[in-house]
Annexin
Amino acid sequence: MATLVIREDVSVVHDAELLHKACQGWGTDEKAIINILGHRNAAHRQQIRIAYNDIYHEDLVKRLESELSGDFEKAVYRWILDPVDRQAVLAHVAIKKSEPDYHVIVEIACVLSPEELLAVRRAYHLRYKRSLEEDVAAATSGDIRKLLWALVSSFRYDGSEVNARLADTEAEILHNAIKDKALNQEEAIRILTTRSKLQLIATFNSYRDEHRTSITKQTLLGTSDDEFFKALRTTIQCINDYKKYYEKVLRNAIKKVGTDEDALTRVIVTRAERDLQDIKELYYKRNSVTLDQAVANDISGDYKKFLLTLLGKED
């Protein structure tokens, strides 16, 4: 369930005019920008960009980049992008860090549907003139490369059919690989990167039933410093229950010494139109404080106002 609150009687031409006015004069009207964009869905935002360009012969995204700054600018920029293009940008930023953020690549590959992932790969190629697969391969090495490249290259079956016998068999393959600390073996990577999500959930359930523990707990036994095993655990979490995974990302982002603004922005911006309300409820159950309160207490200024607007909090 989404948290985005869309105002009635949207006029994209009027919105474009108000945004232009907000960027005129000596100071930017950040409140007007938040009030408009924070209450428009992806289709509205795309139409506003087109209307703005038609009227003023200027790219709205570039204009906002020049008017805004800091975390607020980054959040608005990522919000205004088409969702598929946004995922391509997030992937590129994650790959180009001095230490690539493989968690973001895993999220994109494992949370999105096969069709959505394919669309992101196309958007990435269109924007950067390279494939997502080649950039992942160039930025990583060893077992991490094998896993991430397989994840972004896959096109999983997305139907409802599940093979229970296969789930039992592959649960044992994964168990033996974990026990022997050999999850880098090609057979285990093949299972986790090519099976449908429903098939893998059946495999994870079979693992739990047979071994009386979850596969995510097992993957970290004695391997807490192993980056490959951490990436593998993220893969399993994103497939098994991505909403719980996102709750944990938010919790860690806020509770860190110094907020992880990138992670906070990423989750709120990408999930506000989809299922952020569900993630908010999980957050409250886990932390006994609402996500709105946690965000309000941790950040400030227009950045805070914008994220709270996307969280559905009205003035």
Notes: The mean pLDDT is 94. The chain is about 70% helix and 0% strand. The domain at 12-83 is CATH 1.10.220.10 (Annexin V; domain 1).
